[in-house]
Amino acid sequence: MPKFAANLSFLFTDRPFPERFALAAAAGFGGVEYLFPYEHSPHDIAEWLQASDLEQVLFNLAPGDWAAGERGLACLPHRQGEFAESVEQALEYAVVLDCERVHCMAGLSPAGVAEVELEETYIANLRYAADWLATVGVTVTIEPINSRIDMPGYWLDDVAKGFRLLAAVDRPNVKLQYDIYHAQIIAGDLARTLEANIGQIGHIQIADNPGRHEPGTGEINYPYLFALLDRLGYAGWVGCEYKPLTTTEAGLGWLKK
Questions:
Q1: Which helix (H) or strand (E) segment is 3 a member of?
Q2: Confidence (pLDDT) at 86
Q3: From CA 159, how far away is CA 1, in angstroms rounded?
Q4: What does the DSSP assignment read for 100-149?
Q5: Of 31, 91, 103, 247, which has the maximum CB count within 10 A?
Q6: CA distances (Å), 40 to each of 18, 43, 48, 144, 253, in order?
Q7: What is the C-alpha separation between 132 and 128, in angstroms, rounded?
């Protein structure tokens, strides 16, 4: 069975962030991920991880002004300086937290900018991030996110485009973050996509569809996909980035099975 990590930006959210680490460990998770760590000292987070015997699996580069609606910087021309600062910040956190993966959000497509300029900016920024983070053994992940329901206007909104960009970036420590929920909405064909591309996938995330709730609440056959990951020899983590239908604890029956 795959290794499951609790996404603390989605699970146990009825409790303060520092308390969620112990709750995740008590529920049986071996690792944690979340969107952004930057409101807290990396040394504080390291203490919470150690106290609960958890591995830090993944976090995101700073996305720009999240409260104002920004969703990443990597494709945005004229923001390269801010992007470089976000890489520096993430490197510091990755070292302290002993985290081997950092997700780089692409950003929303700005009006009036040619697609070729967005792609060139994105590729240059990804190479920059990959080269810096490689110095501390960190993999950079890129995640296709559906723009139809969850993130309108997101630039990297196609799975095939994600794999094409991996080849264009051409760095061994850049991998695809395959979120099965988003992939189902974007294109479906989940099992064949995993089979054909498992070597290029550096992290997997899950939620069911529709609703983005826990596995077993929607149309995706997760028992089949988990068994498939085992057959394919996937040794990475599976991040549980779903919205519990009621409470986190009440919805963990799928994990116990």
A1: strand 3-7
A2: 98
A3: 25
A4: -EEE--B-BPPTT--HHHHHHHHHHHHHHHHHHHHTTTPEEEE----TTT
A5: 103
A6: 9, 8, 11, 27, 31
A7: 6
Q: For residue 78, what is the DSSP state?
A: T
**Residue 56 region by backbone torsions, left for phi larger than 0, else alpha for psi between -120 and 50, else beta:** beta
- Picking from 32, 40, 82, the residue whose alpha carbon sits closest to that of residue 61 is 82
Q: Which residue has 């969703």 as its token pair?
A: 71
In the annotation, is 241 catalytic?
yes
Candidates 70, 143, 214, 249; catalytic one = 143
Catalytic residue among 33, 100, 214, 241: 241
pLDDT in tens, 145-188: 999 999 999 999 999 999 999 999 999 999 999 999 999 999 99
* Residue-level length of the chain: 257
Residue type, 242: Y
pTM, to two decimals: 0.96
Question: Minimal CA–CA distance to 72: which of 84, 60, 81?
Answer: 60
Place of tokens 């999240």: 66
How many CB atoms are closer than 10 A to CB 179? 23
Catalytic residue check, 219: no
